[in-house]
Amino acid sequence: MERKDAEQLQQKLIQGELTETEQQDFFNWLKQLDEPELSAFLKEYSASFEQKPDSLTGEQHEDLTNKIEMRLDALGVPKTQYRRHMPFKIMAAAAVLVLVCSTIFWYYANLNANKQATISKNTTIPRATPIYGGNDKVLLILSSGKRVEVNNFTKGQLAVENGYSIEKESNGLLKYRKINTATAPASGNTNTIVTPRGGQYCVNLSDGSKVWLNAESKITYPVVFSGNTRKIALKGEAYFEVTHNPDKPFIVDFEGSNVKVLGTHFNICAYGDGETPKTTLLQGSVQVSTGDSKKIILPGQQAISSKKICIVNVDTNHVLGWKNGNFSFEHERIGTVMGKISRWYDVDIKYQGEVTQEEFVGSIPKSKNLEEVLHRLELTGLLHFKIKGRSVTIMP
């Protein structure tokens, strides 16, 4: 496709006249651009909205505005009171920007090794020591209060409690193995696992259930699940694969809510930093409770726990992006995006000026260093970053 053809498709996209085939052709053209070409196109795109369309008659302007409204609706952009009164150039830009940003994220998340090298060579990313996320630091707090730095052990036994050997396997998994059937269970004895910023960890509980913890998270759980329930407490984010036991429900307490299951796979995100707690189900069924409100959710659904529980359908691949090595953004504001980044890279976030309230969509590998991730966000043209030590300032 020639550039002039792409520019014509861009105008049709703005006006809401692009067919599905033309839209795919336009995206394919964007995806084949290298970084300098893509950056140049976006700059020209932004500049095209600096001039007010005075050449349009009142009727033409109204017709075009209606078409853009329809495009924003189709893209799922919330219809707020002020949207209709947005300046034309901003509204038109928003109609394209949601789609273009999605393409940009796709493009940079799927670059091959050669193209990644080209980015490092041609961009002005600061040459300070790269900041990477991901470490094997994890803290185990025993019922006695003793603190064990799990990463100091390659493998083998870390401690013994209530007839269970707490062991680190060669793959890094922490496991509880029963070694003494004569020892009476002590229901009050609990352990706590804490992952710091930049860390993730997996633990196999004494009932066989597995829990994956995201960065800056912790769970507190009994060494032995006695009584009629298996109850644990979570702060942060974790993915659970619960061993089925119809006689002993598995209960997770978090942020004034709880999830009750018999045996299933689900994810809970409850950092308590202003974000509403979310429970996402992948397999089986769970009951989510908040105050007097109780809801059953099914696979592919997410329960959002506020004063009442709201259930929505979600893409579980995005929800579990963190577990599978990616930052996954599914229509998320910059505060949520930077929350994920700050926890993974152990950096503090500051805001300068009025930053964008646009929603981000896409995926970036967590294996990239901080500068690379921020640079990819900058390529949307929505914001800029300044890094000083372990502090990141976000600017318009």
UniProtKB/TrEMBL annotation:
GO molecular function: sigma factor antagonist activity
Membrane-crossing residue ranges in chain numbering: 90-109
Keyword Transmembrane: yes
Membrane recorded as keyword: yes
Domain FecR protein residue range list: 192-287
A Pfam family assignment: FecR
Keywords carried by this UniProt record: Membrane, Transmembrane, Transmembrane helix
InterPro entries in the record: FecR (IPR006860), FecR_C (IPR032508), Ferrdict_sens_TM (IPR012373)
Location of the Protein FecR C-terminal domain: 327-394
Identification of the protein by name: FecR family protein
Organism in which the protein naturally occurs: Pedobacter suwonensis
Lineage: Bacteria, Pseudomonadati, Bacteroidota, Sphingobacteriia, Sphingobacteriales
